[in-house]
Amino acid sequence: MVASDITTVLLVFVLCVTGLHGMEVVVEITCNKTCLNGGQCVLSPDPLLGLKQTCTCPLYYTGVFCEKFALRVNCDKPCENGGECVVNVTENTYTTVNKTCVCPQNYHGDVCQTFAPSTTASTVSSTTASTTSPTTASTTSTTTASTIINSTTSPTTTSTVSPTVTSMMSTTTSTGQTSIVSTTVCVPPCTAGQGECVVLRNSQLAPHLIDRAYCNCSTSATGYYYGKQCQHYQQNVTCDPPCKNGGECTVTGRCNCKGTANGYDPGDCSSFSADPCNPACENGGTCLGGVCQCKSTNELHYSGSHCEQTVQCTPTCVHGVCKSFGTSLSYCSCDSNSTGSYEGSTCENFTAYTYNDATDTCTEPCENGGTCKTYIDECRCKFNATHYISGPTCSQVQECIGGCLNGGVCGNGSTCLCTQEYTGANCETYIGCPCQNNGTCMGQYCGCTSNSTGYFGGRLCDQFVFSPPCYPSVLNGGLCFHQHSACPYDDIGYFHGDQCEQYSVHNCSSSCLEPYVCVQQYCTCPYNVAEGYTYLDDVDEACSIKYYL
Questions:
Q1: N or C: which terminus of the chain carries fewer CB neighbours within 10 A?
Q2: CA distance 379 to 398
Q3: Among residues 243, 261, 266, 252, which one has the least CA distance to residue 223?
Q4: Tens of pLDDT along 375-407?
Q5: Is the link from the previous residue into 472 a cis peptide, with omega within 30 of 0?
Q6: Per-residue pLDDT at 339
Q7: Cα–Cα distances in Å, from 418 out to 427, 441, 447?
Q8: For residues 134 and 147, what is the distance between their CA atoms, to the nearest angstrom?
């Protein structure tokens, strides 16, 4: 479901820092995370990161950016013969709730009212034969059919299925018999007893997407399975330190804190108190740790200990949110993105950024081939194999005598910076790529690899850092990267969510300048999750460095 309203709330966190000679310096830190559906950006202390930006979501919304709408649906379909009512939610232009009956074996029909023994279709390969539990066959009114492959589940294990996943569907033959026909199977098959093959109905998210089969891995009391075939096992990871304030430790060792905007906390939830707000928050404010988090709209700004004070922006903000000075003066805080920013008293005008445009000049003209970054009025200096150029106007020049060979560049101090494959005063000696563990030589650095259980680091990719595998499984070709899902995109939209199970249309406010592409609401360098690489900006050329994840 694509959010129709995007609210960017900018909060300023005033931090007092004691500098040299006991001087106290006041540092203002802007909270600029883009929160959707009326969510509010909040700065909070973090034991690892210092300060963390999170979105505090209004009632019925959740997710990292408040992009998810939490539906409460009563499944009241009158299933017969021991059938179980389940709810499937489809998100596209509209959110559709479909209630179906999961029928016992040999029972079929809309409410499991028909008894007809099933026959295994000949189209199912013997290498992916289905072993179906008595409670897994379900029926719907569609004619497309799919089947669970290797769905034998241990009595002590459970599995998590996305609401847009249909495990099995039925079709009726010309003789009137109901049979199970496989149209999408898991290849290679799921490991028996450790996961089941289910079909993700992507075509219900967007017409151009295709349905995919994947192995939905199981959990047990002591751990969980992961991998494309659910062939690997990971013991539950203990949260250290233990979660506080009612937080729940997940199987991957993260604290799921009560009252937080995105659910998870890299710490122990100690900064999120479960104390209620007294008096209660007004005007749509949300209570977080006993403190009301007030919201702003394009017309109104709320403040006060329980969001009881209201200031109105007249006229309303076009591309921004209403803010206030004190209790009477108001102004519009304008939105911005990677392509430009809105300006004007009501944020009605959009000004695009310009990058590396030789026709644009800075206040002080750039020298020695430097280009002006007009959006910040600074010169970008170019250096090469023979000279290192620096300074505010690129006027300071250092020379590397003899020049730097084989891709090396002249660095500060007239010293050659060699690529990983070469060494010597002028990078003249070939030594080969020293990067270990399938690392890739990328100029002066090693591009280290990662997998579902961690990543390699260090100057030569010689150090492995463990990170628990993601659970539940990451779908649609996404990658598990440092316990977070990296989801793919296409020309129309992008996958998102903890499992990459959701799909939304790109929504950049203006066209992206090449080579940048629009992903979500931002212009960014292209990346390919399936092949595990992204492009990064170089000093002289945008998106020119290929980096493997």
A1: N
A2: 17
A3: 252
A4: 667 888 888 899 999 998 999 999 999 999 998
A5: yes
A6: 67
A7: 5, 11, 15
A8: 14
Element (H, E) at 224: strand 223-226
Res. 129: pLDDT tops 60: no
Answer for the pair 491, 266: CB distance below 8 angstroms, yes or no: no
Model pLDDT for residues 500-515, shown as the tens digit of each residue: 989 999 988 778 888 8
Whether 338 and 524 have beta carbons less than 8 Å apart is answered as: yes
DSSP one-letter string for 141-189: S-S-----SS--B-TT-EE---TTEE----EE-TTS-EEB--SS--SSP
Query: Residue type for 127, please?
Result: T
Indicate the SS3 state at residue 284. Answer: coil
DSSP 190: P
Encoded tokens for 38: 């009326």
Pair type for strands 84-91 and 517-519:
unpaired
**Tokens describing residue 301:** 């700004």
Higher pLDDT, 95 or 541: 541
Provide CB contacts within 8 A for 166, sequence distance 6+: 88, 138, 140, 146, 198, 199, 201
pLDDT tier at 258 (50, 70, 90 boundaries)? low
CB atoms inside a 10 Å sphere around CB 157: 17
Whole-angstrom Cα distance, residue 214 to residue 230?
10
Geometric angle at alpha carbon 437, from 431 and 438, rounded to 5°? 75
Residues ≥6 apart with Cβ < 8 Å to 108: 114, 115, 116, 137, 139, 170, 178
pTM: 0.51
